[in-house]
Design goal:
By secondary structure, this protein is an alpha/beta fold. Helices cover 39% and strands 19% of the residues. It folds into 2 domains: 1-123, Formyl transferase, N-terminal domain (Rossmann fold, 3-Layer(aba) Sandwich), CATH 3.40.50; 128-270, no CATH class. It has an 8-stranded mixed beta sheet with strand order 3-2-1-4-5-6-7-10. Strands 8-9 form a two-stranded antiparallel sheet.
């Protein structure tokens, strides 16, 4: 068993959650990731949804300890309390259930809750954001519309440190890619002179440029997550006192994995 331990947080709400866990698990088993998954945590329990039950079956099939605390059922009498108060109470219960596990790094992999301040301080947690460092914030849809609105030349995907401010943590790892040149350029010509409001009408998200940007981003999400975990397991990047540092202890504004991700995407024909 590796000396580098991962905590895996996932709601387990869809096939993508299972696929991502499978990819990382296989990389670990094949020795390409020098780490182990110490536990999987979910904010659902058995019987709440078919998809999450399938996810739990997968986790248990891999022999990974599974810890569940239903956010939907948690202290319903406090539902009238302020959201911050409810979240703090829930996170404290989660941390209590996870006592005895000492993860070096926690990965949010389709975890559909905002993590509160105390949990962020307890664990080193990272999450995916579908943009490059300094790029647009918000949902992946909002990111793409902003890229089109600003006529951006490039974008990317990053893993960032989870902080109490949603999507505001510093970049941990990232990759970038151009959204100019072919095959993008012909589709850019199709949006010339149009505002985002005009573009959202009619086909909206079905427009070729929107779909192509999304497709290229998606092709990099799983590779970036696995490459990030690999880099942490090998000591190429780590988090110290809320800052991202490289193997030599030098502070970096995100560890650039673009070359590694490009190679993986090309091998897969992306």
């Amino acid at each position: 068993m590796s000396s580098y331990h991962l905590g895996w947080f996932s709601t387990g709400r869809d096939k993508a959650a299972r696929d991502l866990l499978t990819v990382v698990w296989q990389e670990i088993r094949q020795g390409r990731i020098k780490a182990d998954i110490a536990f999987v945590f979910s904010n659902r329990e058995r019987g709440e949804a078919v998809e999450s039950d399938l996810f739990f079956d997968l986790v248990e099939g891999y022999g990974i300890p599974l810890v569940c605390v239903s956010s939907g059922k948690f202290q319903p009498e406090k539902r009238s309390a302020a959201l911050e108060e409810w979240r703090l109470s829930y996170d404290r219960e989660v941390m209590k259930r996870l006592e005895g596990f000492n993860p070096d790094l926690c990965v949010l992999a389709g975890y559909m809750l905002i993590v509160g301040k105390e949990m962020c301080q307890r664990y080193k947690m990272i999450n995916l954001h579908p943009a490059a460092p300094g790029g647009p914030t918000g949902t992946w849809q909002e990111v793409i519309w902003k890229l089109i609105e600003t006529r951006a030349g490039s974008t990317g995907v990053m893993m960032h440190l989870v902080t109490p401010e949603l999507d505001k943590g510093p970049a941990v790892t990232f990759c970038t890619f151009s959204i100019r040149g072919e095959p993008f350029e012909r589709h850019w010509r199709g949006v010339e002179g149009l505002s985002v409001e005009q573009l959202k009408k009619g086909q909206g998200e079905k427009k070729p440029l929107f779909r192509l940007i999304r497709e290229q981003g998606l092709a990099r999400e799983f590779p970036l997550i696995t490459a990030t975990v690999r880099a942490f397991g090998e000591g190429r990047v780590r988090i110290e006192q809320g800052r991202v540092v490289d193997a030599g202890g030098k502070h970096v504004d995100g560890y650039d994995l673009t070359a590694e991700i490009d190679r993986i995407v090309q091998e897969k024909g992306g």
